[in-house]
Amino acid sequence: MTTPATQKVILVRHGETEWSLNGRHTSTTDIPLTALGEQRAAKLQPFLSKWNFGLVLCSPRLRARRTCELAGWSNSAEITADLSEWNYGDYEGLTTPEIRKSVPDWTVFTHPCPNGESASDVGARVDRIISKIRAAGCDTLVVGHAHCLRVLTARWLGLDALGSRFFQLETGTWSELGYEHGNPVLKAWSAPPA
User: Fold this and answer.
1) pTM for the full model?
2) Mean pLDDT within 97-124
3) What are the two backbone dihedrals, phi and then psi, of residue 151, each rounded to the nearest 5 degrees?
4) Which of 34, 57, 72, 86 has its CA 20 to 30 A from that of 41?
5) Is 14 a catalytic residue?
6) CA 66 – CA 63 distance, rounded (Å)
7) Which of 14, 25, 145, 147 is catalytic?
8) Pairing relationship of beta strands 174-180 and 9-13 according to DSSP bridges
């Protein structure tokens, strides 16, 4: 039986896409996984099959839903818009070096995304996800995107959304959140499939 002290949350970042490979900011654009992205997502299945998740949450974006499917959990997944990637607004499809041509030193964490979301906007969304996970009180699988999952991790740990800048998250990897002595902790980060 899972208790708040033993509850585990496995985070999975979707597999590689052409845009993630090229460093393009991808929020609302629905693009497929690359062949390598599909292979890595499928390699998550043996590891994830060992779990008995009572709650499975997934972003509505194609790349996340396909990763969830290849990892073996799409039949149990609850699709939630709160797990959508940070909305980059006018910066959708651009790389950081392209953005910095007009906004030197730009980062998604410290500068606005015109017509998009701020760190606090994403923080409010993931706070709802965290509340749902804690209320469920069971082991949970969350399939989503780099920046959104980074903010979720920061908020799980009690940091503000800007604290997410310290967590780099690779495609097709898993991470684990949980508790130690009743305190929320990060147990594993950006681990590749076996």
Assistant:
1) 0.96
2) 96
3) -65, -40
4) 86
5) yes
6) 5
7) 14
8) antiparallel
